[in-house]
Amino acid sequence: MDNELYDYWPITDRQPLELPGGAKLAFYIGLNIEHFQYGKQATSMHPATAANTPDPFNHGWRDYGTRVGVWRMMKLLDECGLRASVLLNTDVGSQYPEIIQAGNDRGWSWVGHGKTNSEFWVGMTPQEEAVALAELTDTFRRVTGQQPKGWLGPALTETAATPNLLAENGFTYLLDWPCDEQPFPLNVPGHRMISVPYTVELNDIPKFLGEGVSGEAFGRMIVDQFDQMREEGTGGVMSLALHPFIINHPYRHKYLAEALRYIAAQDDVWLTTSDDIADWYLENHYDQAVERLATRKHAATTGADRRGPEARLA
Predict the structure, then answer these.
(1) Which residues of the chain are under the pLDDT cut of 50?
(2) How far apart are CA 283 and CA 213, in angstroms?
(3) Using CB atoms within 10 A of its CB, is residue 15 exposed (0-12), middle (13-18) or buried (19+)?
(4) pLDDT for the residue numbered 127
(5) Which residues contact 15 (CB under 8 A, 6 or more apart)?
(6) Residue partners of 85: CB distance under 8 A and separation at least 6
(7) If you average pLDDT over every residue of the chain, what do you get?
(8) Sign of the C-alpha dihedral, residues 148, 150, 154, 158?
(9) Distance between CA 292 and CA 92 in Å, rounded?
């Protein structure tokens, strides 16, 4: 592979992961809680006014998430016994401190998500990024009271230096690469760093804004994804990427509620957070995965094993 961050490793060449409690599937909510700076263009519902300052149409639409949507979401997650994995802009700490307090009261996990979603995590030299990331990590600790373990760049953006700099700041996993249904090791020299699955398919931004699906159809997609992955039994990770300014409008929220109630009612699913998934994988599977990848590299170099993946698993 020409992407040096991770090695090619087909799912057919991996054993099913044995999840805690004998679960067939791990499930987590990736809840994006973001701050959008006044006067800057960002995710928009109505592009015709997006360049205006002020832009009441789009800015007010985005603000719905922190004023109304996230509180409706909290009530639903509490009902279903779910803790959120919050993709958190650090500006949320100064702009909406009540959300941080409510999340800490619920034991939510906080995942680094840049400073604001009005700016992508790009356009920096490695030296500039090192300073920016160190400052962001310090701010994250201050506003949440936690050392961040995971990272999702704003709009899944990062630089070539980001994984190494994250590891140097105490991070242990990335969500930026939506290429798998199991966690897997990343090639970050000198550090134990992994990728944890995050979805751009079950993500309300592309589904509602890009494809124009209905709330009912999105709810059906969630249940279909859950049922299929659960039936396959690979010990996979199902993530659900949500934004309160989109999904928690009442006419969409009702279908999300139906889907989450269905998932929470099953007794063979691990309802968890991305932090807990990363900790579990690093403790129980990381070393074996690194060894297996090294064996694959050696075999590829020497031509020692030319059997198909199904035969190698036998």
Answers:
(1) 306-307, 310-314
(2) 39
(3) exposed
(4) 98
(5) 313
(6) 28, 29, 30, 31, 108, 109, 111, 150, 273, 274, 275
(7) 95
(8) positive
(9) 41
CA distance 53 to 37: 11
Helix-, strand-, coil-residue percentages of the chain, each rounded to 5: 50, 10, 40
pLDDT of residue 201: 97
Helix (H, G, I), strand (E, B) or coil at 187: coil
Q: Among all chains, which residue has been given the structure tokens 């999105």?
A: 218
Q: Which residue has the tokens 């599977």?
A: 285
Give the whole-angstrom CA distance, residue 308 versus residue 314: 10
Instruction: Delineate the domains of the chain, giving CATH numbers in brackets.
Output: 28-306 (3.20.20.370)
Q: Which residues contact 129 (CB under 8 A, 6 or more apart)?
A: 159, 161, 162, 165
CB 91 within 8 A of CB 147: no
Encode pLDDT of 133-180 as tens digits: 999 999 999 999 999 999 999 999 999 999 999 999 999 999 999 999
Separation CA 118–CA 35 (nearest Å): 8
